[in-house]
Amino acid sequence: MYKDLRQTGDYTKYAKNIGWEVERVGKNYCFIKKFSIVGSVVKLQRPGKIGHKDIKILGYLAKRYRAYQIGVEPTTSEHVPLLVKFGYKISRYPSLPSKTILIDLNKNDKDLMNGMHYKTRYNIGKAKRNKLAVHRSENIKEFADLWQKNSKSWGMFLPQTSEITALFKAFDGDAKIIFAKKGKDIVAGVMAVNTKDIIYYMYAFSTPLGNKLFAPTLLVWEIINYAKEKELKLFDFGGVYDERFPLPSWIGFTRFKESFGGMVVEYPGLYVKSLLPFGLTF
């Protein structure tokens, strides 16, 4: 089993930079967000192996940080009986994508292309024939500003520039931006970060012209090739629509992601334990 993004040292740097505290629970990282009046939230995301001792440590941290809720998003369904035994219940609202698509980067380019929908293969070629220029960048400010500007077209009005910037800086050499340009104008961009084995498709944007020229499709292919250059094992699309926890706004981009082929992976979801007042049930 490959280590998840949320269980890496670089991700802990990111979490600290956006206001979370980090503790160890066995061999896993746990994240705590403090709130001035209501206490805090404790969360453990995509851990490796967990046992009784780890669940008890979560309880100790809940007391220490006066938590009103603990959330665990297990990597495998094997963890679920233990969580239920300790009083955790499934939530309707996971904080991480509960379903994703993984692409095996050990395949050669021909096999990767053959795994795609025929229109996706065609659109990659069409984007190239549209004479889009693709270049890699380290300019996180430019990317974050363009993402924020273009995200309004799909209903994302909350500012995300500080989170995008913090993530890029935390992963440093393991974060990459790729832009697509038509002439002098940037028409699309993607930002990915990687662990030792997996590259994650984290943020992407496209202008109306970029969509018309199939720039987003080309950029996914470029990120896949970048990951193969780094000899990474998997490409993680960072979440798709999950019928168990439906978010209708995810249906459109899920069709886009599904067109690249790959393997669908489902996670158990978010299990929570409410602790009112402030962890005193432990």
UniProtKB/TrEMBL annotation:
What the entry lists under Gene3D superfamilies is as follows: 3.40.630.30
List the signal peptide residues: none
Q: Pfam families, alphabetically?
A: FemAB
Return one GO MF term: aminoacyltransferase activity
Record's superkingdom? Bacteria
* Example of a GO biological process term: regulation of cell shape
Keywords for this entry?
Acyltransferase, Cell shape, Cell wall biogenesis/degradation, Peptidoglycan synthesis, Transferase
Protein family (similarity comment): Belongs to the FemABX family.
InterPro entries per the record?
A: Acyl_CoA_acyltransferase, FEMABX, PG_Glycine_Bridge_Synth
Identify this protein by name.
Answer: BioF2-like acetyltransferase domain-containing protein
